[in-house]
Design a protein that fits this description.
The protein contains 20 helices and 14 strands. By secondary structure, the chain is an alpha+beta fold. The strands form three sheets. A five-stranded mixed barrel has the order 4-7-6-12-11, surrounded by four helices. Strands 2-3-1-14 form a four-stranded antiparallel β-sheet. The protein is elongated. The relative contact order is 0.13.
Length: 581
């Protein structure tokens, strides 16, 4: 058994170059990927790069002032945070200020327009029946009911040439896991009795279910110009849920105006909404909705009524913040509490609509109190101070290594450089991939990692020096010290990584940046020690400078206090006994 073990050790010692080659190839690949992607610097957080800060003020409905409480504010923060940070580890920051304000910080480099739109859509989500709809040209968009495939029925044509129906990502609402194909085919072609309903005016059935519209509202609808931002912002403001209203909505780049009936279903009735890709048909991306028991019944009732109508009165409008975000049409009763919205969705459009459906029903409404641009001047000064402090600390560590470990310090410094290269390239690539942003706490995490990495080197070096103190030569000492040092390093790094993981899970905002950086650098420490530090020391142990125990190698037996008896192969002779006269 001794001979094979010796052979394995000899083989392991003779091929440390493989590990070195592997880690150098990894660094080269990461560096190449960094330059190929064009992201050669880490993405910076709002405190370093600047960005947009939005202050939102909570507003309770009349008579419900008690709704502004800690529980509802925390729920609103969670919803907004999931909206703006929905792409992964990003540095958008959402937190309460006082008892009724929420601050949202959106760093430079994030799509601030999209994030602001997500934060701004904080009103209740409603489903309202569509009574009338017109495109921005002012022409009526009362189009014939599409067939099951989503194309217009050949029995009539769209006289207005409106592109809204053709380009809208909103399309047929269908049940999930139910036999809807036959129902769609049965209702695909409108009967002659429905031709009179295609004029764009509310049908008797729709009017009875939605309530009659007043003359003032009809005039307001006729005068509404949704291409005017001011009119868009004012449309539908203050509308009661049990009364008809007007609203604007956008399909692609086309604005349309809507005359809507009272609310039939609340956004709070949705328990789940997600985007998915339909692989079983040519529907492509779609949005799947699941309703609770109350919502399922209300949705079944309203779709049964809408299915009797023709376009646009067979559509229901999804209204968020008084704006129509989608208006799919219905061709059959949707029972069972599950539905799909499909038709010409891109992945981004489907995810955006699913996000609004999932988090649209806030317990409070919010208004923008202020929107300001944050400069990075203060953060830059703090970053410079932090980097100076880190550089001073690193310099002190290097000086200590040079004085105490001498030649061994070269291995430690090279290992630190490799760790820094891996950390920098990964941070640069993680910005565009998962939205990681480097902020001041994250920089602190990277500085703390210098000490963690240096500790691993010291543990291994001291184990080697202990072996030399016991009288062994350098090459056996390097191999015998590794198993014990490896165990200590792994336990230490596991504790650090566990602390970082717990901190990342239980905290939010900037503290997560610190935890993420600490966890990342701890993992890289293991990689560097195993694939670089140990193989490099194995190679160095073969050189005459280190193997001979040169006084400047850091491995001089005399300097380490190795006892001569431990280095001799012959035991000292026993003392001669003498007898007293």
């Amino acid at each position: 058994m001794a001979a094979p073990k010796k052979g394995r050790n000899a083989s392991a010692q003779s091929k440390p170059g493989r590990s070195l080659a592997l880690i150098l190839i990894a660094i080269a690949a990461l560096t190449g990927g960094m330059f190929a992607s064009g992201h050669t610097t880490p993405r910076l957080g709002i405190d370093l790069a600047g960005g947009t800060s939005i202050t939102l003020r909570a507003e309770a409905e009349p008579g419900q002032e008690s709704a502004i409480n800690k529980t509802n504010m925390d729920t609103a923060v969670e919803i907004m945070e999931r909206r703006v940070n929905g792409l992964g580890v990003s540095e958008s920051e959402v937190q309460t200020q006082g008892d009724r304000n929420i601050i949202v910080n959106i760093p430079k480099g994030t799509n601030s327009k999209e994030a602001r739109a997500q934060v701004g859509t904080t009103a209740k989500l409603y489903f309202r029946p569509v009574l009338q709809r017109e495109a921005a040209t002012g022409a009526s968009t009362a189009t014939p009911t599409p067939s099951a495939s989503g194309s217009p029925s050949p029995s009539s044509t769209d006289k207005t040439g409106d592109k809204d129906s053709a380009t809208s990502p909103s399309a047929t609402a269908t049940t999930q896991g139910r036999a809807v194909t036959d129902a769609l085919k049965a209702d695909a072609t409108p009967s002659a009795s429905n031709d009179s309903k295609a004029s764009g005016s509310p049908s008797p059935s729709a009017s009875s279910s939605a309530g009659s519209t007043s003359g003032d509202l009809e005039k307001k609808y006729a005068a509404l110009d949704c291409t005017d931002p001011k009119q868009r912002a004012a449309a539908g403001k203050g509308a009661k849920r049990d009364e008809p209203t007007v609203a604007c909505g956008q399909d692609g780049k086309v604005w349309s105006k809507f005359l809507l009936g009272p609310v039939d279903v609340d956004g709070t009735d949705i328990t789940k909404a997600q985007a998915s890709f339909n692989t079983q048909s040519a529907a492509g991306w779609q949005v799947d909705m699941t309703f609770d028991s109350s919502g399922a019944k209300k949705f079944a009732d309203v779709t049964a009524e809408l299915a009797k109508q023709t376009s646009p009165q067979n559509e229901f409008a999804i209204v968020l913040d008084d704006e129509v975000v989608s208006h799919p049409f219905v061709q059959g009763t949707i029972a069972g509490g599950k539905a799909q919205i499909s038709g010409s969705f891109s992945q981004e459009e489907a995810k955006s609509l699913a996000n609004m459906l999932s988090y649209g029903a806030l317990p409070l409404s919010f208004s923008e109190d202020s929107v300001t641009t944050v400069t990075a001047a203060l953060g830059t000064e703090q970053l410079q101070a932090g980097l100076i402090a880190g550089a001073i600390g690193l310099a002190l560590v290097v000086i200590y290594l040079l004085v105490y470990y001498r030649g061994l310090s070269l291995i430690a410094i090279l290992s630190l450089l490799v760790s820094a290269a891996l950390t920098y390239t990964l941070m640069s690539l993680l910005g565009p991939t998962i939205g990681f942003a480097l902020n001041l706490p994250a920089v602190c995490g990277a500085i703390v990692a210098i000490g963690i990495t240096a500790d691993s080197f010291i543990v291994y070096f001291e184990r080697v020096r202990d072996e030399i103190r016991e009288g062994r030569s350098l090459r056996p000492a390097v191999e015998r010290a590794w198993p014990r040092a490896r165990r200590t390093i792994l336990v230490s790094d596991f504790v650090s990584f566990l602390a970082a993981a717990v901190l990342f899970i239980v905290t939010v905002g900037k503290v997560q940046g610190f935890a993420f950086t600490l966890g990342l650098t701890t993992l890289l420490d293991v990689v560097v020690v195993f694939l670089f530090t140990k193989p490099l020391l194995t190679i160095m142990a073969r050189s005459k400078f280190f193997a001979s125990g040169h006084s400047w190698s850091g491995l001089d037996p005399k300097r380490l206090g190795a006892q001569p008896p431990l280095r001799r192969t012959r035991r000292p002779s026993a003392p001669v006994e003498t007898k007293e006269a």
